[in-house]
Design goal:
The protein has 373 residues and is an alpha/beta fold. It has 18 helices and 9 strands. Helix content is 52%, strand content 11%. Strands 3-4-9-8-5-6-7 form a 7-stranded mixed sheet, with helices on both faces. The N and C termini lie far apart (50 Å). Bound molecules: tryptophan (TRP).
Length: 373
């Protein structure tokens, strides 16, 4: 069988992703200008990731905002699969989520799927527990409001999640899971059940609070697969389908294919990297859209559309005018690759220095975030 040129799912992201094709295949909707002005009506300004179409697709956003307008405010739900260190790609979805939390003053339910990562990765239970704690520090460092943010840890909150998960699981066939995730008979039986666990936070807050609020999930589009399966199930159980905002992937250091991964060190920048490490990684590995010689670059210009340093700046330089100038200068050849990399290095170091300071203090706050039940 011929391998497709790209593939996007929770357990594999590969190739150069055609996002327009994905929209069709996944049956999601492009975020329209109308959607954006609707959001802006409530938030006053638009997050750069919305302006830049990094968050580019949605499900049921209109319904979610209609309810909001009627006074039925949504809660936010997102999550983290704790299998290793956090890289700057993870942070993009979460910092956008924080913006939503601030603008709409909503509750956020944040799931740590230690069960998932134990089942899917060749790592011990203890190792996954260590990463769960480490990853919580990064989430907290982003500045979420502890009064409005609740961490659910699948194995720790099992007593709360499991009774609901089995209700979900009973309505999903093995054949559906096999087809959606490409599982075979050799997948372990825990992995087959897992989607049910990821579904529960869609409606758990409504059970706990005896309410009927919409759930809005910001996620990277690979995670849509779980919810595509469970949206109908949720409805059959008597709850609303969740609304979803989908983001693109931040490209790995080495080029525009696949997504960033922390299992391969040199493809990503970790939140714990030192200034020196960041500089070395970017200088050495960041795929460049520049020409092979300075003379040629000055004459013909570079290609920011494939240049990873430029692409990463679209995540870290909030100022549209500054960003546009960098784009134009690189394209015209007046900005060299080494200079572009320098801009990125300084930007990232400044951001991560602050992040690391907050991360060091985050340990004391963990208790405040983990849901008491
Ligand atoms: N499965 C996700 C991961 O591997 C973690 C997760 C759980 C999640 N619930 C979520 C991600 C909801 C986005 C939205 O990272």
């Amino acid at each position: 069988m011929q391998k497709r040129e790209f593939s996007v799912g929770p357990y594999e992201v590969r190739g150069k992703i055609d996002y327009d094709k994905l929209i069709k295949e996944f049956g999601v909707n492009k975020i329209s200008d109308e959607d954006l002005s609707r959001i802006k009506k409530y938030t006053k300004d638009l997050h750069p990731y919305l302006r830049r179409k990094i968050f580019f697709a949605q499900r049921d956003l209109k319904w979610c905002l209609d309810e909001y307008e009627k006074g039925n405010k949504f809660f936010l739900y997102t999550g983290c699969g704790p299998s290793g260190p956090i890289h700057i790609g993870h942070l993009s979805v979460w910092s956008f989520t924080k913006w939503l939390q601030d603008k709409f003053k909503t509750e956020l339910w944040f799931q740590f799927t230690d069960d998932e990562k134990f089942l899917f990765k060749g790592k011990s239970y203890d190792e996954i527990q260590k990463w769960t704690y480490e990853n919580m520090l990064d989430v907290i460092a982003l500045g979420f409001n502890p009064k409005n943010t609740h961490f659910l840890i699948d194995t720790k909150h099992a007593g709360l999640l499991y009774p609901e998960a089995i209700k979900v699981a009973k309505k999903i066939n093995f054949s559906t899971i096999k087809a959606a995730f490409g599982f075979t008979d050799s997948n372990n039986i825990g992995s087959i059940f897992y989607t049910a666990m990821q579904t529960v936070p869609v409606f758990l807050p409504n059970i706990l609070r005896k309410e009927n609020r919409p759930c809005l999930i910001p996620l990277a589009i690979d995670q849509d697969v779980h919810f595509r399966i469970s949206r109908d199930v949720v409805e059959k159980l008597g709850y609303h389908k969740p609304a979803i905002l989908h983001s693109k992937f931040m490209p790995p250091l080495t080029g525009m294919e696949g997504k960033m991964s922390s299992s391969e060190d040199n493809l990503s920048i970790l939140t714990t990297d030192s200034e020196k490490e960041i500089e070395t990684k970017i200088r050495k590995y960041a795929f460049s859209g520049g020409r092979s010689t300075i003379e040629e670059h000055r004459k013909k210009g570079g290609n920011p559309d494939v240049d990873v340093s430029y692409q990463w700046l679209t995540y870290f330089e909030d100022n549209d005018e500054k960003l546009k100038k960098i784009y134009d200068d690189y394209k015209s050849g007046s900005l060299l690759t080494s200079e572009l990399k320098q801009i990125l290095i300084e930007k990232l170091n400044k951001f991560l220095k602050k992040h690391q300071e907050k991360r060091r203090k985050a340990g004391k706050l963990v208790e405040k975030f983990v849901l008491k039940f």
